[in-house]
From TrEMBL:
Residues 107-141, 342-364, 385-427, 645-666 are annotated as: Disordered. This is Bacterial transcriptional activator domain. The keyword Transmembrane applies. GO terms for biological process: regulation of DNA-templated transcription. It comes from the Bacteria.
């Protein structure tokens, strides 16, 4: 239809002009005609000629615009075709043999029993166990996650996602409630995680989980199964990216392998991480930075733990390297030299992370994690200890978005429910619930949206009342991908959502103005907007603050998009949760009834069961009430919950019976 419309615009006006008026110019005017025009320029004939020429100029402008767009699309298509991977000669041969076998099945009349099928292709050739350290089934799999800046094995990506989840749990545990206010705090512990981390989280959410029988092995075990004992040299374009991948793989596995440490020199760390090496290196657990090879050898010889040593090619001399290789071999450690390996094997590493042993070309090509500097720094940030130096100035806290935004906004969602019948008459206002399970209601019935990405976009736009442009939506819903790639998905999903709502209700709830998508507040009602309005009213209330604060609690039934794990959601969810926790504590502090105080604190604990300050306040309230046994039980239950969530790395804050607050660990 679009093509027909464009062709009609290009061919229709010229045909009409030529048939009704004729060509715009029928030769140059004569001297008499020019003299007559000067004497009387505004005649019916001259006006007709001027309008005709203007119409032809508008058509030429349209044709020029279409030609430019077509050339742009063709250029983009040519670039995409150049990047399209073509099959290698070996793959083409294998495909041809497979096709011949398939077509030959229908004509082959042989009744002999076919040979047993070959084992599943894993990239591992049938070689003896002792043939080469490259022979490793788990390492030869290409099951991984592609992000902008590299590739991660699935087990490493899952450790990234686990470390990211722990960051938000620690932030919830360490948060200290403050007086309620209408502002959202702009603090380091509410900022979004680095882009590479969110890209890994989103990729894992979209990738199907492997069967239990094919679950990836431990990342460190797979790595040590690939690297030979003693020293190994890595050359090729993938040497430095693999060095960064080794750094991330080993340090991410540190919590599961506390006896494993990565050792590297300061020079090597700088070559891998660039300017971030100095500040980031001293905050990374399970990383030992040495000045020279003698220090690395002494560390390996003096420790009973296993070590993995990474060195750059220009970071050693032959004599010191011999001593280090001997220490690594004796201590069952692994030594990786990013360059020619002195006295040991040297493998070639391509840019995709595949390893190749030139001495054994028939062996499989295992793949290691490869990262550029930006991706490696992003991933290491989530396991680094917090920077002890506080920021010089805290950024101002912006106001909450208005409860009823001035412009329309777009919701999208996938919910289970009965699809309403199409209706031409407008129904009541749509109700969008995103506090708890996201649901779009029409006359009390949930609307089923067919596309899975629609639910995420719906909640995103509901949390941004002023709207979001195409870039913001694509970066949030499909992080880590080039913008051009998910833009088509976004337009398709938005079109389907608009059509579904319009068919079911006859309402246009999605406005698109200046490349910003918004929900129309005259057609849709969002529960989060009511919560924001309650917070703003409570901040402006001077006399009856208790009632205003209670309104905030009544407007918060559950977490924002409860149960959803979208990476962009964590900062929004935590900001809202903190507003409600602040309200619980403020009500408890002004409540004269001890039982009511305890009930309010327990409400806060129900909202955030990991917050240490709330538990300490509740324990102090129980002790003040004389129920020491209940206080002890609460404390032990809280510690068990922390251990179950992986948050048992710091002791519980001690009781402060005088003030009822926890001393915060610096």
């Amino acid at each position: 239809m679009s093509l027909l419309f464009v062709l009609a615009l290009l061919t229709g006006p010229p045909v009409v002009l030529l048939v009704l008026i004729g060509p715009p110019v029928r030769g140059w005017p004569t001297r008499e005609q020019a003299r007559a025009w000067l004497q009387e320029p505004l005649t019916e004939q001259t006006l007709t000629a001027g309008l005709t020429i203007g119409a032809w100029l508008l058509w030429l402008l349209l044709a020029y615009t279409v030609a430019v767009r077509v050339l742009t699309r063709l250029r983009a298509t040519v670039v995409w075709l150049r990047r399209l991977p073509l099959p290698t000669p070996l793959q083409a041969t294998a495909s041809g043999m497979a096709g011949a076998a398939v077509f030959g099945v229908t004509t082959n009349t042989a009744t002999t029993t076919p040979p047993p099928p070959p084992p599943p292709t894993t990239g591992v050739s049938e070689q003896p166990e002792r043939a080469s350290p490259l022979h490793d089934d788990s390492a030869a799999r290409d099951d991984g996650i592609v992000v902008s800046g590299g590739w991660l094995p699935r087990e490493v990506a899952e450790q990234v996602a686990a470390a990211a989840a722990l960051i938000w749990l620690r932030r919830r545990r360490d948060y200290v409630p403050r007086p309620p206010g209408p502002h959202r705090r702009q603090e380091p512990d509410t900022e979004a995680l680095p882009p590479t981390v969110t890209a890994v989280q989103a990729a894992l959410a979209d990738a199907p989980a492997p069967p239990a029988a094919q679950m990836p092995a431990d990342s460190l075990a797979a790595l040590t199964g690939i690297l030979p004992a003693g020293g190994l040299g890595l050359t090729g374009p993938g040497a430095l990216p693999i060095g960064r991948g080794l750094l991330v793989t080993v340090l991410l596995a540190g919590p599961r392998h506390p006896n494993t440490t990565l050792v590297t020199t300061r020079t090597t760390l700088t070559s891998l991480l660039g300017p971030e090496a100095e500040t980031l290196g001293r905050r990374l657990p399970h990383l030992t930075i040495v000045e020279d090879l003698d220090d690395a050898a002494r560390i390996i010889e003096s420790a009973d733990t296993s070590r993995i040593v990474i060195l750059a090619a220009d970071d050693y001399d032959r004599h010191d390297m011999t001593h280090l290789i001997s220490a690594a071999t004796t201590g069952a450690s692994r030594l990786v030299v990013l360059g020619e390996g002195p006295g040991g094997p040297t493998w070639h590493a391509d840019s995709t992370g595949h390893l190749h042993d030139p001495s054994r070309p028939e062996t499989p090509r295992p793949r290691l994690c490869v990262l550029d500097q930006v991706a490696a720094t992003d991933l290491l940030t989530i396991i680094a200890h917090p920077d002890p130096t506080p920021p010089a100035l805290s950024a101002p806290r912006p106001h909450l978005p208005p409860a009823m935004p001035p412009g329309p906004r777009l919701p999208r969602q996938t919910t289970r429910g009965k699809q309403p019948r199409p209706s031409t008459a407008p129904r009541q206002r749509l109700q969008l619930r995103i506090l708890g399970e996201p649901t779009l209601l029409i006359d009390g019935e949930p609307l089923t949206i067919r596309r899975s990405a629609a639910l995420q976009i719906l909640v995103y736009l509901a949390t941004h009342p002023t709207g979001a442009d195409t870039r913001q939506l694509t970066e949030a819903i499909w992080p880590g991908l080039p913008r051009r790639s998910p833009t088509g998905r976004l337009y398709t999903t938005l079109s389907d959502l608009r059509s579904s709502i319009r068919t079911a209700t006859g309402l246009h709830v999605i406005d698109h103005t200046d490349d910003r998508y918004r929900l129309n507040p005259t057609h849709i009602d969002v529960d989060l907007w009511h919560l924001h309005a309650a917070i703003q009213r409570a901040a402006a209330t001077v006399t009856d603050t208790t009632t205003a604060w209670q309104t905030i609690l009544d407007a918060y039934p559950a977490d924002l998009a409860a149960g959803r794990t979208w990476p962009w959601l964590d900062p929004q969810r935590e900001a809202i949760r903190r507003h409600v926790i602040d309200t619980c504590v403020a009500l408890a502090d002004t409540e004269p009834d001890p039982q009511r105080t305890l009930a309010l604190l327990q409400t806060g604990i129900h909202i955030d069961p990991y917050n240490a300050n709330l538990h300490t306040r509740a324990r102090n309230a129980l002790i003040t009430h004389g129920d020491h046994h209940a206080a002890t039980e609460m404390h032990h239950r809280y510690l068990r919950n922390l251990a179950h969530a992986g948050l048992d790395d710091t002791p519980h804050p001690p009781l402060d019976r005088e003030h009822g607050t926890a001393s915060r660990r610096q």
